[in-house]
Automatic annotation (TrEMBL):
It is found in: Membrane. The keyword Transmembrane helix does not apply. One of its GO terms (cellular component) is membrane. The gene is Cd58. This is LFA3 protein. Keywords: Glycoprotein, Membrane, Signal. The keyword Magnesium does not apply. InterPro entries: CD2/SLAM_rcpt, Ig-like_dom_sf, Ig-like_fold. The lineage of its organism: Eukaryota, Metazoa, Chordata, Craniata, Vertebrata.
Length: 185
């Protein structure tokens, strides 16, 4: 990877964050820097040492990944990982962008339903700027459906059933529920 290459990654305030690093070589030394300042250093076989305000909130793992606990707004910045295997130096750069996803900004999803000749179609929407994970749950069925839309053959519709749409972004969830009887003409 060329110097100056930067991978942009998003962290969410208040959550734990691990840089997506997986080093397979045998490492002799690792240094993590943030905005050119050293954050953590590990010279094998000693224990890692930590520096600066991230010192008490970061954990450096053997595979080179750095975890920051309880992300704060100021953790945003350019992070640089430099490590040496027994042969040469390697470098990876990351730009950590902070998203303050307060629970309030994740809306409650909306459910729309329509029927055709032979099926009932449920659609779940949420007005949010990032891509969401959608899951459907039916009260009479333990199976969860990972999709924004759910189709049920009309012959299988039980009017006592409730359908729940769950949207998830990172660790945060919101849900809405509808009774299938509301959807029938």
């Amino acid at each position: 990877i060329a110097h100056g290459y930067q991978k942009e990654i998003v962290g969410i305030m208040g959550e734990n964050f691990t840089f997506p690093v997986q080093i397979d070589q045998k490492i002799v030394e690792i240094i993590w820097k943030k905005n050119k300042h050293k954050v953590a250093e590990w010279e094998y076989p000693n224990k890692p040492t930590y520096f600066g305000h991230l010192g008490n909130r970061s954990v450096l793992m053997e595979n080179g990944s750095l975890t920051i606990v309880n992300l704060e707004k100021d953790d945003a910045g350019i992070y640089e990982l430099v490590y040496w295997d027994s042969v040469k130096e390697h470098q990876l750069n990351f730009k950590l962008v902070m998203l303050s996803l307060l629970l309030d900004s994740l809306p409650k999803p909306e459910i729309n339903c329509s029927t055709s000749d032979d099926e009932l179609v449920l659609n779940c929407t949420a007005n949010f700027q990032a891509s969401l994970n959608y899951t459907w749950k039916l009260s009479n069925n333990p199976h969860r459906y990972q999709n924004q839309e759910l189709s049920i053959p009309l012959k299988n519709v039980d009017i006592t059933t409730n359908a729940t749409c769950i949207i998830k972004y990172s660790q945060t969830e919101r849900s809405a529920e509808i009774s299938l009887i509301q959807c029938l003409p």
